[in-house]
Amino acid sequence: MSAAYQEGRRVTPREMVRSHAFPVLAALSTISLIVIAWSLIPISRQAARWNGCFEESLRWQRRDFSTESKTISKLWATRYCNGGSLPMPRK
User: Fold this and answer.
1) Terminus of the chain with fewer CB atoms < 10 Å: N or C?
2) Exposure pattern of 50-87 as b/e (b: 16+ CB <10 Å)?
3) Which CA distances in Å does 27 have to 1, 32, 34, 83?
4) Tens-place pLDDT, residues 20-60
5) For residue range 49-89, what is the model confidence (pLDDT) as tens digits?
6) How far is CA 21 from CA 1, 11, 16, 27, in A?
7) Helical H runs in the chain?
8) How confident is the model at residue 6 (pLDDT cuts 50, 70, 90)?
9) What is the pTM of this model?
């Protein structure tokens, strides 16, 4: 406790606000960071699934259609994982 409280003198509202501002702001910042981190979890999971889809699609494309250029294979894998359609290349 501060000396003002211990001495028994009257504390002004300004002193009250100043004495409690840092803990309140620190708690608010901590809660905000936790909420932000929590909201990023679904985005992280979606990105991990998309990366897995892309790698598997690219691997499949390069195995079955090895004559296609790598750029075309990446384009096909990207469109496939984003839910689009692209005609399959002919052998």
Assistant:
1) N
2) eeeebeebbeebeeeeeebeeeebeebbbebbeeeeee
3) 19, 9, 11, 42
4) 899 999 999 999 999 999 999 999 999 999 999 999 988 88
5) 999 999 998 888 888 887 878 888 888 888 888 887 656 55
6) 15, 15, 8, 10
7) 3-7, 13-64, 70-81
8) low
9) 0.59
The encoded tokens of residue 43 equal 């985005």
Residues 6+ apart with CB under 8 A from 29: none
Q: Which amino acid is at 49?
A: R
Residue where the block lists tokens 């409280």 = 5
CB 4 within 8 A of CB 15: yes
